[in-house]
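Recall the central idea of this unit: under ordinary conditions, the amino acid sequence of a chain determines the structure it adopts. In this exercise we apply that idea directly, starting from the sequence alone.
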Amino acid sequence: MSRYDRQQRTRGGQQLDERWRQLRILLVGCGGVGTPLAQSLVGSGIGFLTILDGDRVRETDLHRQTLFQDRDAQQSVAKATAALRSLERIGGRTRIEALPDMLTPANAASLFCRHDVILDATDHIPARLLIDRTALATGVGWIHSAAISDRWVAASFLPPGSPCYHCWVPEPPQPDSIGSCESEGVLPVACLAAATAVLRLLTSYLRSRTRSDGAENTRTIIRGSVAAGETIVTLPTDPDCRYCSGGKIESSRLRSADRVHLRKLCGAGSIETWLDLDFDEIEVRLGRLGKSLDICRGSVSLRAEDENGALICYHDGRALITGNHGQKIENARTLVSHWLGEDALARY
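Accordingly, the structure predicted from this sequence is:
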């Protein structure tokens, strides 16, 4: 009997488990939320997990950071190193990489492009802003999470595009306007709830194959506290967001009911559009171009890349054109037509 038999027996479990097995995740931050997340991901057989954390284990971490032991704090072991040691004891099919580094503008894009989904489990606002901007620029989506005191939050930005994190938090909060673990403490239950919320959002996304027409996109945000329980709200696009809205939108009118959508994401250097092809057909058409493209199909996206940028396609029909290809709308439309055909762009 398969180690993963029980999750394969759930509704749609065989398909979900196959997508899970193929998924490549970058976990940024391995603390109170990141450690239970990593445990669950490895235990359930995620395909590939990279842990990125430049911090070291301290004694005050041990009550909630479930992968670490007394000796790790006593020896001030790097969190990524200690996490890898604990996760390898779980066994199973997951391949794990540990990087004892911080996410920086110098390494963000290259790390993102090696993965399908980014999980933000940091407590650092600049890192969170960097994650969102890099997601918009590279086409790799992410899920945000945080926990403090007895409160938690998780928000999905899968796939990347509009609305973005900046639609939710237009300006970074002042450092003294929000609490920290040092000032407010943090309960293990809040960390576990945040990790669970992330897994809910990720699982829901992998199960979903509903195609949107791109007219009105929302994001799911899960908030909770021990006293009040959980609430789920949706985040609409902010039409004035300087990162994902307000960009030039081209609707090439052929007939009154026959238009295509191409939009420049202002702060990202990418162009968003919608396709009318499924993954299998996209892969077939890209394959006809021969070895001129680097093509990678994963659980979340299908990526085709050359030296000038990439076309990243998602199951809901959305696509991003990045790099030099994403600098001008005219070039992006020409690229899609050349790579996928004149009929690829969704009409509405």
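The chain has twelve helices and 15 strands.
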